[in-house]
Design goal:
Blueprint (H helix, E strand, L loop, with lengths): L7 H20 L5 H18 L5 H17 L4 H7 L5 H10 L14 H9 L1 H12 L9 H13 L4 E2 L2 E2 L6 E2 L2 E3 L4 E6 L11 H12 L3 E6 H5 L3 H9 L1
Parallel strand pairs: 5-6
Antiparallel strand pairs: 1-4, 2-3, 4-5
Helix pairs in contact: 1-6
Amino acid sequence: MVVYKWNEEEKKAIGLRTSRDMKLFWVSGKVSLKTIENLKNMGKNRKKKYGYINSPETRKKLSKIMKQKWKNGEITEKQKSTMFKRGFDKRRMITQKEGRKIVDKKGRLNMSIGQMRYLLEHPERIEKFKELRKKIILPMKDTTIEVKIQNFLKQLGYEFYTHQYINEIEHSYQCDIFIPSLNLVIECDGNHWHNYPTGTEIDNIRTSELISKGFKVLRLWESEIRKMTTEDLRLRIEI
């Protein structure tokens, strides 16, 4: 997981950008009546439950205290369980402890609208994020079909690398498996995600680019890997 901590200058710029966006959002009249009603009821519900509503000054003080407690690791498990909605606790806790996750487990950018727009307004920062993106191992956990092919290659005695970044082509990416001795790229394509049997447009583009750069490419479908044996793979590689 790639983690990037925004510096104070960036946080301030992002905060101002988000604030402007929210003001424009409200002025534009795009806010639904349901959202307005929920905001109105927030204070009423708290007063009904606790008998009071914290002032803006008190909320700021409490926020500062809680941030410091998070930083010092003083938050109890009971507090954690009541602070966030069920199902989001773990994700929020990791974010609080480690900083903002730039990329999630599926390799997608995990930033707020304000953070994304800040990057668009500061193109010089985009290159840094591109470099971070190259270091991400995708997927975070090898799929079962990838593991099966890796085990076959070990039995056949081939030295190989997983998630090797291929930057020799225009549409650079991390391939599933790369065998240096054969200059061979092996892709283990899931039937659903890679549009069996034709393949996705980007898959076909990358295959063409790899071949034009002198690489050998072997794309294996999930359905054939499931019933494949070590000997089957050996024959496919040696063709």
